[in-house]
User: Fold this.
Amino acid sequence: MDTKLTLKLDHSIIEQAKMYAKKKNTSLSQLIESYLGLLVDPKESHQITPLVKSLSGVANLPKNFDYEKDYKKHLLNKYSK
Assistant:
């Protein structure tokens, strides 16, 4: 059940938050609800988007794949040029 909440905030913060919400294609209410959800129960409020779900399991890596070693190698190649 949704309940109305009145907040008193700085006008410029509200305007910036509205612009942020618009860029993220969401409402300010949903943005605040998600943030508060993270504060009270980080596991429950974090939702995986359908796109991320569809990408999950796409890469077939060996069981002993060393992510840190591979990432270090990537960084060395990237910045040593």
Observations:
- The chain has a mean pLDDT of 85.
- Residues 17 and 23 are 10 Å apart (CA to CA).
